[in-house]
Amino acid sequence: MVRQADNMCPDCILYSPPDKSDPIEKSKVVVQFPSAERFKPSYVHSFGMSDNYFVFIETPVKINLLKFLSAWSIRGSNYMDCFESNELLGTLFHIARKDIGGGQGEYIDHKFRGAPINLFHHINTYEDQGFIVADVCTWKGFEFVYNYLWLANLRTNWEEVKKAAMMAPQPEVRRYVIPLDIHREEQGKNLICLPYTTATAMMRCDGTIWLEPEVLFSGPRQAFEFPQINYKKHGGKNYSYAYALGLNHFIPDRIIKLNVKTKETWVWQEPDSYPSEPLFVQTPDAVDEDDGVLLTIVVSPGAQKSGYMLILNAKDMSEMARAEVDCPMPVTFHGMYKP
């Protein structure tokens, strides 16, 4: 398993062997990324991985390690008090080769930059004709979106929740394209020549390459989060469909299917129903990318309603079945399907 190290090495990619005896102890660092601020690594929830490359996105949302080390024992503060936002930093895009031999990766020292964003989830990352295509769920701006998710805020009435969401960063699904073949003399020229995207990469006079994304999905205070694709067939490869939990002013109230090529969307939604992250399960021996089902746990508050497992047809988002559970259920986040 390849994963990000959160505490041992904040800007590292670790490889953990499939060994249940002591996977943490047997983990090893595959590649380490430089941080723009040594004692303030970025908050990183996920990273991108294609067939041959890692994509590590360093956002302006920072964890102050000095505050973190003294938070509880000295200052009596909590984890959220350790976050800072550097509005001048913008976003840095780091890439590394996955394996140059002996299980070791190699950092590629090109300086890719973009406007400031918040980022939690990568949708998919793949290579195409000398470019890395990275599709991500973003929140525009440098201010940490978690600042608007305090429980006290979410417990207020719906109008107050909407007011908070109006002030928070705007969510967008973005496609960034990173060129692998860099010619330093091509200043001011768009280095991207893929015919199916409007994303750009421009060489600047200081040697940095400025990335402008293509927006794949955007709606007023409508987020596309906790994404899934047909990872079995298209993880790290060119693809067409993504599925996600739709957040309406931070409230999860729909499941969305997105065609990343045409930007067409399909939605499942019911009144007073709050689904979880959808899990895509491919039909055995499927031919089409979206031939399968989506599994989601739906919470329906109220004495007369039961929570239920919902099964949707991944092609048209129609309901195929539901299994009700006659007991209280919490809202869930991440999960996995295990046959």
UniProtKB/TrEMBL annotation:
It comes from the Eukaryota. Its EC number is 3.1.1.64, 5.3.3.22. Its main location: membrane. Pfam families: RPE65. It comes from Umbra pygmaea (Eastern mudminnow). GO terms for molecular function: hydrolase activity; isomerase activity; metal ion binding. This is Retinoid isomerohydrolase. It catalyses: an all-trans-retinyl ester + H2O = 11-cis-retinol + a fatty acid + H(+); all-trans-retinyl hexadecanoate + H2O = 11-cis-retinol + hexadecanoate + H(+); lutein = (3R,3'S)-zeaxanthin. Belongs to the carotenoid oxygenase family. It is a lipid-anchor. Coiled coil: none annotated. One of its GO terms (biological process) is visual perception. Binds 1 Fe(2+) ion per subunit. The keyword Ribosomal protein does not apply. It is found in: Cell membrane. Its cofactor is Fe(2+). Fe cation binds at residues 45, 121, 334. The keyword Acyltransferase does not apply. One of its GO terms (cellular component) is plasma membrane. Keywords: Cell membrane, Hydrolase, Iron, Isomerase, Lipoprotein, Membrane, Metal-binding, Palmitate, Sensory transduction, Vision.
